[in-house]
Amino acid sequence: MSIPQTFIQELIARADVVEIVGRYVQLKKGGANFMGLCPFHGEKSPSFSVSPAKQFYHCFGCGKNGNAISFLMEHAGMTFVEAVKDLAQQYGMQVPEDDASPQDRARAVEQREKQHTLTDVLEKAVDAFKKNLKDSTKAIDYFKGRGLSGEIAKQFGLGYAHEGWRSLASVFPNYDDPLLVESGLVILNVDDESGEEKRYDRFRDRVMFPIRNVKGECIGFGGRVLGDDKPKYLNSPETPVFSKGRELYGLFEARNALRDLGYALVTEGYMDVVALAQLGFPNTVATLGTACTTEHVQKLFRFTDSVVFSFDGDTAGRRAARKALDGALPFATDVRSVKFLFLPTEHDPDSFIRAYGKDAFARYVSEAVPLSRFLIDSAREGCDLNTAEGRAHMASNAKPLWMQLPDGALKRQLLTEIADSVQLASRELTDLWTPKPAGQDLEKQKRYKKDNDIGNEYGGYNQNFRKKFESRPRLGSRVLPASRADHAARILLGDMAALDVLSAEDHTMLCELPTPHGPLFAWLEGQLHEHGPQPWVALREGLRDHEGEALAVRLMAADEMAEQDDSGESAAELRNLLDRMLIDRLTAQETEALEASKADPTALLRYREFYTRRRAIQSALTQAE
């Protein structure tokens, strides 16, 4: 069985190596990483380090290292395929089989080409709907009545679908094209008796909201009626490019605001997203007529570490919040924040902010219910804690919620709170929820506790722990890569998200560097658009057989378990590198322009532009120093 490399890369990026290793090894936080006794060789002082940032483990005693898959192979004795299947099952992923014949491979290529073609068809529809809007007084009046400006309508590409049954025939002359049906724009009905085919537009007399993926490509639509017809909102069907359980409306438009404002606001409707963006909350997104899923939450956490779910305060809103809680629990680590905002029953976010203003809504957001409190409230609902039966019922309700949380301080604190509520000791509740397997070696546990001197001043480890790691060279003492391009590549391979803050000039310069640097930077950008920021260990898998593989592996070889750079210092270091690389690039362009001016006097204009830009960068560098 052959498993596609792209799937392995996605699996490693999704898996949490700290969680996987922590099931077999008792880990404790030690600086940026987690430490424990190495499971691969006998030791009394912990030298086994697991990095949550790099999704990598390394033993400084025996040298064992790797990712979540290799740990399951080394420690649990699984084959590669068994480890992949086991890990995929834990994260709800289906392992594809790539024992593909040439015909199957050809079909796969055809499918990818079809996806590109579908987005082209949908983009053509976007243009047509936007043009329709300009000519429709009633659609314009609807948007104006909802308080939307022309600027915000343009930003989100809002449009209008005419009320005719086959209005798109004027946009797509070949109305029988199967792609129109496959893209969800046209509905095909076949008469059971006569076999006659009837085609008609899916969206008719509706204002249209294009749905875009993180790359900005249109993958579907949401349409709202102007009158009282049902359904009020109509979404595109599931297609090869659109799955409502994985996509979020407005994420593409909000991606920069998520970083700037520091959190994502998740609502339930298209109009909420567009209206709130206009009214000062451009970090708003919405689910697409479905409950919030783990895929939604995971996608959001690629852009921000803080998510606020906004729901109506009625019963339906509470139900939706409960489903969002289930989706968020597996990702609620100690460094992430998840909150739940409940508005008065008579308001949605759009109506509330228009009634009470931006500041009042911002206060509601800041006072949203933390995940920990909502979890306990959900478990306690319907339970009489004055009776033993009610407390037992709460413990039963809380268990599946608590078990979904990743291990960490939050999970342990919630255990204590739940135990207090049901009047049990934390240890009793733990034994109830996670009974020990028969025949467990208790003596081994006692020896572990003794060897590690749990109560000492070094946070739970014996004194040899500090000596072992104080003698290890720190990050600042390592030899820097040979060139500026090498150094920039090392920083970006370790922190993909830094690509998002670079200017277009930076991107162009990096991608136009000679092989292997230029292709490596171009590949990194593609990975960021496709999968979001990924740790080096996932990138390593994706680089198999890429022309930049050898360069990347060489640069990162000495960086596997080094302590994390300060993010501010790394950003400043990268900016300094890129500015110096830009100076070199502009200097070369000046020389080329001067040479060209001998035959082409207009080249002097280019020379002056390059010269002015170079001097500006040099001046900024001098001031910074």
Structural write-up:
The strands form four sheets. Strands 1-2-3-4-5 form a five-stranded antiparallel sheet. The chain has a five-stranded mixed sheet with strand order 13-12-14-15-16. The chain is 51% helix and 11% strand. By secondary structure, it is α+β, with helices and mostly antiparallel strands. β1 (28-30) and β2 (33-36) form a beta hairpin. The chain contains 27 helices and 16 strands.
Helix content: 40-55%
The order of strands across the largest sheet is 1-2-3-4-5
User: Major sheet, described briefly?
Assistant: 5 strands, antiparallel
Low-confidence stretches: 448-481
Approximate strand percentage: 5-15%
**For the residues shown, what is the average pLDDT?**
83
Number of strands: 16
- Please work out how many helical segments DSSP would assign: 27
What is the 3D form?
globular
Please state the CA-atom Rg, rounded to the nearest Å: 28 Å
Helix/sheet category: alpha+beta
For the termini, the CA-CA separation is 57 Å
Please give a handful of descriptors for the protein shown:
about 625 residues, alpha+beta, five-stranded antiparallel β-sheet, five-stranded mixed β-sheet, 16 strands, globular
